[in-house]
Amino acid sequence: MIIKLWPICLRLYQAGLKLNNFAMLEHFLHFFWRLALHRYPHGHPIPSLLKVLCQASTEELFNIVQVGYLRTIHCLERSLGFGNAVVLSVWSNYLKKADDQALPASALTSRYESVLQEAQNSFTPTGTRTIEILHEYTYAAYYNDNDYDLTWNLASQMINLAESFELMDDHPEWCLATQGYAMAAKLIYVLSEQTSHEDQGTVILRSAISRLELGDRECRTRALMLGRILVTSSI
After folding, report:
1. According to the model, what pLDDT value does residue 158 have?
2. In which domain of life is the source organism classified (predicted)?
3. Per-residue model confidence (pLDDT) at position 151
4. Mind listing the domains of the chain with CATH numbers?
5. Is 105 helix (H, G, I), strand (E, B) or coil?
6. pTM score, two decimals?
7. Residue spans of alpha helices (H) in 21-127
8. pLDDT tens-digit profile of 158-192?
9. What residues contact residue 102 under an 8 Å CB cut-off, 6+ apart?
10. What is the pLDDT of residue 233?
11. Residue 108 and residue 95 in contact, taking contact as beta carbons nearer than 8 Å
């Protein structure tokens, strides 16, 4: 639970900075604290931690959350190892949202290459697990390492895999693999605008929108979001 708490706090804190109002973050922390008091026995560290967060000033809160986030990642890494896909994913999110200097981004992408190979060897090479790992690897390549050539190659692999089997059939369902497909289509489009592949990016994004529009509610919601990217770019 704690590993999920920190990024939520950071997002609400950043929203508070833009609005110059931290009421959303304060309400969230107090609500979460009350839930923890009912769920955990007296003396459990989680309610105590949430109490500290509730009592901290706005100026102190960011540093507390950042340190807590980092130490939680270190604990997870000691338990699972740096090469674990979950550990790599939380590191990637931390680098993007909290401190991009905490770890060389190239360390993530190089390890993701090994994790991807392991997934392809252990699971069906064209299965959803491979797409899920590609999703996380592509995220790290683009948002952490700013390696656009690697991002293009990984996103293209993800598009080809997702469209080659039943994941993107007549009625796709939202899942981690579908989310990866949507992100890949968006990044291909964004990167194509900066290169000579602009038409290719538009074709891929329009195809993704058409496929997602036939899916469940979350798929249709993501199709609308991708559609706005096209509209905004054409203005």
Report:
1. 93
2. Eukaryota
3. 96
4. 1-80 (no CATH), 83-235 (1.25.40)
5. helix
6. 0.86
7. 23-39, 45-55, 58-80, 85-97, 105-122
8. 999 888 777 777 789 999 889 999 999 999 999 99
9. 70, 94, 95
10. 66
11. yes
Residue 205 and residue 121: Cα distance in Å, rounded? Answer: 30
Question: Reduced to 3 states, what is the DSSP secondary structure of residue 215?
Answer: coil
- Please give the helix or strand (H or E) that residue 155 lies within, else none: helix 148-163
| 3-class secondary structure, 224 | helix
Q: Compute the CA torsion angle 73, 75, 78, 81 (nearest 10 deg).
A: -30
Dihedral sign computed on CA atoms, order 149, 150, 155, 161: positive
Q: Is 35 helix (H, G, I), strand (E, B) or coil?
A: helix
Kindly report the backbone phi and psi dihedral angles of residue 179, in degrees, each rounded to the nearest multiple of 5, phi listed first.
Answer: -60, -40
Other CB atoms within a 10 A radius of the CB of residue 172 amount to 23
Q: pLDDT under 70 in the chain at which residues?
A: 123-126, 197-198, 233-235
Rounded-to-integer distance, Cα 22 and Cα 19, Å: 8
Q: Evaluate whether 88 touches 136 at the Cβ level (below 8 Å).
A: yes
What pLDDT shows up at residue 39?
93
Tell me if 50 sits within 8 A of 36, measured CB to CB. yes
Q: How far apart are CA 177 and CA 192, in angstroms?
A: 22
Q: Which residues contact 77 (CB under 8 A, 6 or more apart)?
A: 84, 87, 91
Tokens of 155: 């996103």
